[in-house]
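Thread title: Can someone regenerate the structure for this chain?

I was given the following input by a collaborator and told the matching structure tokens would be attached. They weren't. Posting the sequence so someone can regenerate them.
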Amino acid sequence: MQYKEFVQEVQKRAQLPDLSVSATMIDASVATLGERLDAADREGLGAQLPRKIKEILAERHSGDLFSLEEYYNRVSARAGVGYPEAVRWSKVVMSVLGSAITSGLLTKILSSLPPEFGELFGTRPITPLSASSLPE
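Best answer:
Regenerated them for you:
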């Protein structure tokens, strides 16, 4: 998948107003994921993604141990959006990211993260106590 296709797919799935908003959400979501992953996982992930996304992953220091809630808080701050938008849009970005890489790599990435991150990638159900539970 090329970077332009990645951005367009995020825009389509998230129903965002334009490509620049999609790019902002991709940058914030991927940069924050890059902070959470160790160097080997960032490198493996970057190898299967468009060059621009690989660069976003590579520019981050890796291995910070933080929760899913902190992930969403960091995305929110980076993108300049509220927590609910950071949750929704991060999930879309990770959905597109998950479809752009092999299932084996996705499994490896998920195994290196706490189980709660499964809901970010859509592989774990959201519970009322989840960091991504949003009030109706």
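Residues 3-119 form a domain with the Globin-like fold (CATH 1.10.490.110).
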